[in-house]
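Q: My labmate handed me this sequence with no annotations at all. I'd like to see what the chain might look like in three dimensions before we decide whether it's worth expressing. Could you predict it?
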Amino acid sequence: MTLTADDLNRATLARQMLLAREDVPVEDAVRRVLALQAQDAAGPYVALANRVAAFDPAAVDAAYAAARLVRSTLLRITIHTVHADDHPTLHAAVLPTLRASCLNDPRFTVSGLTPADADDVVAGLRALTAVPRTQDEIDAWLRERVGPDAAPAAWWAVRRFARLRHVPDGSTWAFARRRTYAATGDDAEPDRTPALAAYALRWFAAFGPGTVADVAQAAMVRRGDVRAALDAVPGALVEVTGPDGRPLLDLPDAPRPDGRTPAPPRLLGMWDSVLLAHHDRSRVVPPQHRAHVTRRNGDVLPTLLVDGRVAGVWRLVDDGVEATALDPLPDDAWDGLAEEAARLLAWAAPRDPALYARHTHWWASLPADGQRRVLPG
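A: Here is what I predict for the chain of 377 residues:
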């Protein structure tokens, strides 16, 4: 089977529930799409609103409160929201990356603590957080455990790999900046190779077809480790041919709709996973737009998705959604974006009229010739 660029795009959009919203619970949607980047706490809500029919943000609040959804540091050493059942496996898959990135960082090593010291702290911290603990409670415990000078560095590191979840506190988007933490799962970490293989197969289900480089990029793990993990599950994947003639891997029965399948407009939130899950991001982000969408500090702006690809950016303004198209768009695309803007405003504006407001300084550097409209208009 040879796939065109449009076939490849539609395959990923189908798996990401971006060809049509689906009538599924929010927890099931998160499992389907693997993980939702969540360092901005609003992100999973916006992502799910683009994928779930009759979306209700209160359903996300409830899933967090019941710990059916878990917010934690995972893929790419960033905060993600995942289904609670997936958290142990995904954490085991990325643990070497999390651990090495923290324990080799000067922000930790300046403390004089060793990796063995950090592991001792993790064991004690997981016991402490068997019940939810506030940041102040953890700070006090760490100051007694490692001393007041080393406590900040210890916490900076271990909170990223100790398998902790953020406990929701009823804030607008479920989580405040001053957080409460709780340990997840039991103290036995799943074996890494099976966990990495499970992650890789789930990646193909959520983002495929693709390559080992894509799977590694999405989680920030070593390509050689991904190859070894997939070697341990022979026959799980098949080869298809990509648009450039190179082989791609995929699950045998995963959806691969025709590239002519309509792709409806969407207003994707910041750091939407579909923009970040591939080594070659041109599947969804045209190369000429990447620098405008992904900023130099790593911010990934809210984007207009038109005909399956990024066509511009958006932000909330006083009288609606300001959409900036980086290429001219036809009238029917603007009509579809206006419908999406009305849908977004109906649920998001009452909850937070300043959604993403602290990132709008980037708009000053957008191309001056971009087409701008306030939607729904």
